[in-house]
Amino acid sequence: MTAPRVLVADKLSPAAAEIFKNRGIEVDTKIGLDKDQLAEIIGNYDGLAIRSATKVTEKVLASAERLKVVGRAGIGVDNVDVPAATARGVIVMNTPFGNSITTAEHAISLLMALARQIPEADRSTQAGKWEKSKFMGVEVTSKTLGIIGCGNIGSIVADRAQGLRMKVIAFDPFLTEERALDLGVERVSLEELFRRADFITLHTPLTEKTKNIINAQSIATMKKGVRIINCARGGLIVEQALADAIKAGHVAGAALDVFEVEPAKENVLFGLANVISTPHLGASTSEAQENVALQVAEQMADYLLTGAISNAVNFPSITAEEAPKLKPFVKLAELLGSFAGQLTEAAPNFIRLEYAGDVADMNTRALTSAAISGVLRHFLHVNMVSGPAVAKERGIQVEETKRGQEGAYETYIRVTLKTEKQEISIAGTVFSDGKPRVIQINHVPMDAEFAPNMLFTVNADKPGHIGALGTLLGDEGVNIATFNLGREAQGGKAMALVTVDEPVSDATIQKALALPHVVRAARLSF
Ligand SMILES: NC(=O)C1=CN([C@@H]2O[C@H](COP(=O)(O)OP(=O)(O)OC[C@H]3O[C@@H](n4cnc5c(N)ncnc54)[C@H](O)[C@@H]3O)[C@@H](O)[C@H]2O)C=CC1
Ligand SMILES: O=C(O)C(=O)COP(=O)(O)O
Fold first, then answer.
1. Which residues form the domain of 440?
2. What pLDDT, on the 0 to 100 scale, is given for residue 508?
3. Cα of 292 to ligand 2 centre, how many Å?
4. Could you tell me if the CB of 52 is within 6 A of ligand 2?
5. Measured between alpha carbons, how far is 433 from 411 in angstroms, rounded to an integer?
6. Per-residue pLDDT for 317 more than 80?
7. 280 CB less than 6 Å from ligand 2?
8. What's the total number of domains in the chain?
């Protein structure tokens, strides 16, 4: 067997290259390649080790004929097109804890720097101005810190802020009362957090639900004089809205480590008084970089040399023998979880997996992990291995039931989610062509393949809906690939699952909701 080859494309601690070499893997380090240069050479490598700078796009992956694994020395994988990697059978792995303390410390540093205008005071002093009366700060003791996203990093920030004698409140759909109590934080709604916080710090992943969470409307509900810290992802904040609020004096300052477009060479926030920026330095300490480099290199080497998988964000750990039989059902379980997760308004507190027929005799632990990760990946950076543990930590009850063949399908999986207000169940099967299909939505029969872009509607079963929806999509320039229907009973609730060529816009969703008898319209993507 020829030695596997790994490309290190971002600045990693030299510890990573050492490990690859020691384990008999050839390693090249080429930092700063653009998309085209990367696409040109990626075909020569089995592994790609990156941080946040390298964008692993569909185009790069399309040229990556040999690539088996992308290793992210860090947490966020939003610079990797994970669905495209999965579709090409490329494992994407990250190092979920290696830089959490360091990033939390950066958030606290920015908080203190913001409270006392340290960067600006430094610039003025070194320019010989001695403007002692210009830089009046605020004390953080007894001030309220609002943490949005109280996961690994948010929890460490909470701990450190309490050491600074701040009052910590947190919004996180997965934060249980019990965990909040353990952390010594007060669990509040997002609205209450915006209303009460003197400082707000962001620690969520960038998802459909968190994108633009700080916008003109939410800023208007914040206390006058609020200060905002972002060490998570640029897309969480509408930068123009923040700039406007700072200029208007409503927001007293912002400290930003991350930007919507990186590298951020120019930005609407640059140059404003009381804006502090750092170039995505959250994870940049020698300790964190050593941790993540060692871990990612070991994980990648394990996978390339033995096939063992750990901390993969797009695949569960499965032995070499089980893999071929399980693979289509892993995909199905993940898609069903993702479908249900996209339809919930809030984080679930209960997930049930039902396995019927042949699939009940397979490695359902891997399948359950896949389904849980499908549900949770709309909220968290969760991987299939850690999915059940994360669900447990967050107080989500997971139930698995198995039974023999029942009904029309030889084998099927049903995923049921419960939130405080809703229950959603999606069932599916794998046909002999190996393709996963939806066969029931909330027990209503349906027969549809999963597709990258879909629209789901629920309506009262009255004549005219199909025509109206078809006309609306036509008017909006949305091309329909397939149109699948199901209903409870004549005159009851009816559902449509429509495959479209492009993602349906928010405006089209609003128009679909305004159609007669429509009670639900949601965009789905797989
Ligand atoms: N600036 C930097 O250099 C670094 C940035 N990061 C970023 O920090 C973020 C958080 O990382 P971790 O704490 O390790 O992740 P984590 O997965 O442990 O925690 C994220 C938390 O956000 C919560 N969340 C999800 N959706 C939410 C919503 N709509 N509203 C409020 N909370 C929500 C989740 O429940 C979870 O508790 C990630 O985006 C990561 O990419 C991580 C490391 C370094
Ligand atoms: O781990 C993360 O999510 C980070 O954002 C760190 O990014 P970096 O590795 O410093 O480019």
1. 337-525
2. 95
3. 10
4. yes
5. 14
6. no
7. yes
8. 3
